[in-house]
């Protein structure tokens, strides 16, 4: 793990000009941001299906992530060693990121997280309405991610979840023109539950997102992938509802499971472009500009070529170092720019870190606030 992290650090220092950060000198980052805690917004982008260094940060991979390398990483604090010690399935891993606890729910079942989510902590401690916390998720299997089954929290206290595919299915009644935007969950066994209950209804397309069904359908035809559809919805949501806590999960890279290397690379390139698009939206929307921290992190990695138990880029089955050691970057007011940290973090540290920034307590999280941000 240390070697992987050092390599990643050295790639970034060489190519993106980052400076090595030190944990010995507390930087008091957010106290210097000048943004009152009550006005802060946080946007989180996670990728379901990380990518390996040889296709991203390593010299031979950097051409796939030009926007991260040239635009976003130089403005960010970058952590090279975020270790996921949990189950490597995308739904359960994303639930772990969102609760700060390694969840043990069945990855292929329609179940809420067992521990309180960041959305529940945020809303309860800060007395925020449901409209202030949203999740835009890639797969119909994520419809329960917004709130936990914990007895002290739970139904009605978490985030509202938009499943863009569900919205599109409702708007287009499943016409073949839209099939490329409706591919779901690339893992097996294939799982896509019928969604009922907490989903975003078509009526809300009109009233909340201010989109007519026809405009939505017409625009969707210009999009090339499910993640592009998600980012389109995210931009509409930012403009019309401006939630303070917005969580976006992307999934295009995970097409790697299908085994086509070129589609996996296309997914990486698209994700790279969409991350910059979200950051540009943050910088251009008055409700977000100058007061928003953006976190970007994969849920976990993929298998290495060396491990005999895996099949290279295609899957994340082995639980080896490559598939567990991922990274995280943060950018926004008060975050030191162009710094790389290689000390290990845990995937569960994200939620308490957001809590420290926004002023709520993630009391049941297993993680710790990242000191470099405090
Ligand atoms: Zn996967």
The counted number of beta strands is 10
| Proportion of strand residues | 5-15%
Q: Could you say how many structural domains there are in total?
A: 1
Overall body shape? globular
Question: Total number of helical segments?
Answer: 11
Task: Supply the CATH architecture.
Answer: 3-Layer(aba) Sandwich
Estimate the helix proportion, in percent.
25-40%
From N to C, what is the helix and strand string? HEEHEHHEEHHHHEHEHEEEH
CATH superfamily: Alkaline Phosphatase, subunit A
Separation of the first and last Cα atoms: 25 Å
Structural class: alpha/beta
Please summarize what this structure is.
With 374 residues, the protein is α/β, with parallel strands linked by helices. It is 31% helix and 13% strand. Strands 1, 2, 3, 4, 5, 6, 7, 8, 9 and 10 form a ten-stranded mixed sheet that branches.
Word description of this protein:
- The protein has eleven helices and ten strands.
- The chain has 374 residues and is of the alpha/beta class.
- The chain has one domain (2-369): 3-Layer(aba) Sandwich (Alkaline Phosphatase, subunit A).
- Strands 1, 2, 3, 4, 5, 6, 7, 8, 9 and 10 form a ten-stranded mixed beta sheet that branches.
- Helix 8 (226-240) runs parallel beside helix 9 (261-284).
- Zinc ion is lined by residues 49, 90, 186-187, 254, 257, 316.
